[in-house]
Amino acid sequence: MSSQDIPEENLPAEQDAHGAVGVADDKDPFADPGLPPHEHRVQDIDERAAKRSERVVAMLFTLSMLATIGFIAAYVGVPHDKAIYVFPIGHINALNFSLGLTLGVALFSIGAGAVHWARTLMSDVEMVDERHPIEAPPEVRAKVMDDWKQGAKESVIGRRKLIRNTMLGALTLVPLAGVVLLRDLGPLPGTKLRHTMWRKGLQLVNMNTNEPLRPEDVAVGSLTFAKPEGLEEHDEEFQTEIAKAALMIVRIQPDNIKDKRELEWSHEGIVAYSKICTHVGCPISLYEQQTHHVLCPCHQSTFDLSDGARVIFGPAGHALPQLRIGVNEEGYLEALGDFEEPVGPAFWERG
């Protein structure tokens, strides 16, 4: 059934470019010549089709409500440690899967319902409006201010201080209810961001060979990665600890070391610096022998290991922390303490 089969008096009214309401007319002298003739949708001329669209939109919104209820039920009732098998992904956490599925359905249904509503039931007549200044004229602004002052006066908020103060208190405290949502972020870090596994007497262990390092194992111009003695890959906390304790070991001719403290904290030109970039925490892995520069591959922050590992290029905010090292009685490289400053990116508590 097309719009040509409908009597003209039954066609929906339209607005032209000047706001006039009436039946579309290709010969209308006021019609915008740049717009094609308007084509009516089936919902515009068939109420049964419009009712079907209305039911579809209502069904999508109802599905969103049910999915939201399912999200709350899953959050309360599904155990944190339960796993389910999902083909073809495999075994995944049941709580994460149910929360993601229900919230995704809830949000998608709202969006799909709104789009279907707009495309099938809301007016789709294109209207042209002349541009006008956005700023309100002075008389309108003056009237708005007068109305606001009059409303404030009639609300007696200035005279009824008890109401005003309790209202401000209520509005200030009610956002604190959202603090309970922080529960799932885990325990507060405490001092974990400021300290690592390193302590006096811990040997430096080669990450590749898993053997303690001797000074003769580190050649001039080489780059070696090290970890603390006793930290094994099968340990439950390995990833957490290595993310803070990973070291870069480089041997530089002592005459080429520019920073006095760096020279004092080294052993025969062997310097130990944190491997964790101070920008966003990426592992540094690129070393240039001639310049003694190390480069972070993520965002190209560059540090000069011959000058206190200061930043010479890129977005990193501060130099790499240095670990003070020495040699124990058995001839192995060892730490003489922990880093004196936090490892990795800055954080809000950092002084």
From TrEMBL:
Domain Rieske: residue ranges: 239-334
Keyword presence, Metal-binding: yes
Keywords, in A-Z order: 2Fe-2S, Cell membrane, Disulfide bond, Electron transport, Iron, Iron-sulfur, Membrane, Metal-binding, Oxidoreductase, Respiratory chain, Transmembrane, Transmembrane helix, Transport
Domain of life: Bacteria
Keyword Plastid: no
UniProt record similarity statement: Belongs to the Rieske iron-sulfur protein family.
Protein name per its UniProtKB record: Cytochrome bc1 complex Rieske iron-sulfur subunit
Organism from which the protein derives: Streptomyces justiciae
